[in-house]
Every structure is written in C-alpha cells, then in structure tokens.
Amino acid sequence: MEVRIISREIIKPSSSTPNHLRTHELSRVDQINFDIVYPAIVFYSGAPKNSDHLKECLSKILTHYYPFAGRVKDHFSVDCDDYGVSFVEAHVTDNMSEALQNPEFHKLEQLMPYKPHEMLTTEFNLAVQVSYFGCGGVAICVCFRHVIADGTTAANFLKSWGKVACGGGVDAILKDVVIDFSSIFPPEEWSGLSTNINSEELLTSSTDSIVKKFVFDEAKIAALREKIGNRPSRFEAVFALIWKAVTGSKTEGDEFVASMPVSLRKKLNPPIPEQCIGNIYSVLRASWPLEETINYKGFVEKLGELLSLVNEDHVKKAFPNGWAVVRMENDVGRNTKSSRRRIFHISSCCGLPFYEADFGWGKPIWATIPQRHNCGDNIFVILFDTCEGKGVEACVAMSKEEMAKFEQDSEVIAFASFNPTT
C-alpha cells in the first residue's frame, strides 16, 4: 500500500480554554496506564476529497475536549494550553478493498499519523490522519496518548465529531465531556512513573509476531451460544472459544493468566456519562484449571462470576490504595513448577459506538485498532462488533508458530471466518 502525505498542520480549539480549566489533573487510573498510543481507525466507502469541513468541526469540538489539545506534564496533569492536535492528510494509490479484504496490520499502520512510538516523542495528546483512497474511499485514524483516553473515549470522540460534522449543535452534543476524576481516583506521587515502560519495545512487533482477523458472524455466534448453553454474552462465548483453542494446545510448563479491562462507567453511582474522557476501567486477572477451560459451560460460568465482581464495592475497595489491577486468580489451577507465566490479554470494544461515527457519508464499513504488539510469549486479542452489529470480529496477535496451530483448531474453523471480505 503506497501512502503519500499531502499536508501536516496543527488544529487548535476554536476558542481559548478558560483559565480555571487550564490544568486537568490525571486520575490514579490514568497514571497507572502505560504511556503508549491508543489508535482507532474507521473506513468509509466514499467522501469528498476535501478536509476543510473536518478541520473546522474538529476545532469546534476541541473547545470541549480541551485536554486533547494540551500537553501531558510529568504524568500527573495536562496543561490545557491550546497547543493543538496534529492533523495529517494523505493519499493512498490503492483501492480501499485491498485493505479491507485481506488486512495486513503492519500496512494499516501506514494510515496512522505517526508510528506509535514516534508520536510519544511529540507533544501531541491527539493526532489525526485522513487518508483518501484512489477509489473514493476514506479512512480516519485517531491516535491518543493512552494516559488521557481509553477505547470508550476514542469511540465517543469519533461519534461526537461526526455529529458536529453533520450539523449538530456542539454544546448539546458535547455536554459533560470532561469530568475531574482526580476527586474520585486521587492521583499518587509515584516517582519515575512515566519512565517504567519502554514504549517502542512494547509497540514494535517482533519478527515472529503476527496479527490476523477472525470473524464470528451472527449465525455462528448464535450456534456457539447454543452449544455453550445458558445464553452467554457474545464476549463470553468468543472469549471461551479463543481461550480454549489457545490453552488446549499449550506446551508443558506454560501457565496462562487472562487479563481483561472492564469499564467502570456504569459501575459507579451515579454512573459516569459514556462520552467522558479518561481511563475509567479496572483490569481483572484470572487463571483457571485446564479442566474448566475444556468445559465451555463451566468456564463461562466462572467468567461470569468474575465479571460480576466488578461493582460499586469493588471500585471502592480497589482504588483507594492506588491499584488499577485487581488480581483474582484461581490458585487451584496454578502449576507451581511453571517455567513460563504468559498473559492472555483480551479487551472488548463490542458495544462501543465506533460504527455510529457518521460524518455525512454514512456509517463506517469497518472499524478496527491498526496496531501490533511485541507479543513475546503473550497473546493479545481485541474484539470488535461487525459492521451490522450482531457478530464479533477478533483481532488476534500471537507468534507465527502459535498462529499456525490456532488456525487449525477444529472449533475455530467451525465458528470463525478467516479474513473475510468486509
């Protein structure tokens, strides 16, 4: 895929941020996040090849999303100085169908305004790239500093930007975007917090890592849920299948621990509006004995019990002491002689409004996270809604050796389509 940069500029808020809002404190949950880049990309079948209206609307909404136009200071606060966001226009010579039919995630990274680790060398909290394809299609990629935004933030930002582009009133659409969560999750004075993670190493794939897309359509999801019984959610059903396929072929000495971010927006009382910015989630970690993994029904029941623990009491207990990661591991399943403790990280974007981001050209035909990880011994899975909203798309990252085994799993073959035409 040949991508040519047409222009780069900085978009500033259409009006200055008031003095009393100039400092936005990061919450304890923001602080604990790795200082990496969170990207999201949406594809459209056609759009005018002119970004002037997009820039104007972006400038307008930045008056409400003012921390995005500021700069992070020492991992403790954002200086909302109206520095602006990076806006890149690009032309892609290929037809968009090439990217959609057989997505190669290392090529999709060309649709990002910066390589993930490179953005962290800039002072931007948000960077945008609008890529126009030769066929008339367009892709919009947003990249956030993860310390100020999670997946829910990214999805609602795109949705809100689209509503404004369609003529909606900015003030009505973007009410209560920013809430000071430092009063709920007070920040900690952790010395050297921002220097603990090598972001370039984390975000640059090793040569033996690979990412592939697997789609579970509505009919296959229904069949899988019927096979499991007790009507599990789409997330629970797909998680169970992928977990079983991965752990069922593990080598002796391996121990897998599942890591799952769970949104807290609806867990607090009163609930936090979905469009509020920040990292508003907890991470659960768990391990299960192999016999519970093999039994779909038992595994889903255990998973449901674990997820139900994330409630108001959990939030109160988890965060006063500064821990965003709550470990709830089943020691019965632990192999004390394990030589490799491996992380199975799974996050779900299902239900987030990525497919509601309409800029006047209709809704997206595909939404995804165009980013790879240096997997090492670990496995990364991100779940998305399919375009029609009833199926599940899984982006699975693992070593090439394990991917070859995963693709041959009988139940993966039975329930998933491999890189189907979008």
Task: Please give a handful of descriptors for the protein shown.
single chain, 422 residues, alpha+beta, Chloramphenicol Acetyltransferase, 8-stranded mixed beta sheet, 6-stranded mixed beta sheet, 15 helices, 17 strands
Layout of helices and strands:
Elements: E1 3-11, E2 23-25, H1 28-32, E3 37-44, H2 52-61, E4 71-73, E5 77-79, E6 85-92, H3 96-101, H4 105-108, H5 116-119, E7 126-133, E8 138-145, H6 151-165, H7 170-173, H8 199-203, E9 209-216, H9 218-228, H10 234-247, E10 254-263, E11 281-286, H11 290-294, H12 296-308, H13 312-318, E12 325-327, E13 340-348, E14 366-368, E15 379-385, E16 392-399, H14 400-407, H15 410-415, E17 417-418
Helix pairs in contact: 2-6, 10-12
Fold-level CATH name of the largest domain: Chloramphenicol Acetyltransferase
Biggest sheet statistics: 8 strands, mixed
Number of β-strand runs: 17
CATH homologous superfamily heading of the largest domain: Chloramphenicol acetyltransferase-like domain
CATH architecture of the largest domain: 2-Layer Sandwich
Strand ordering within the main sheet: 12-11-10-13-15-16-9-17
CATH class of the largest domain: Alpha Beta
What's the end-to-end separation, in Å? 18 Å
Approximately how much beta-strand content do the residues carry? Answer: 25-35%
Number of helices: 15
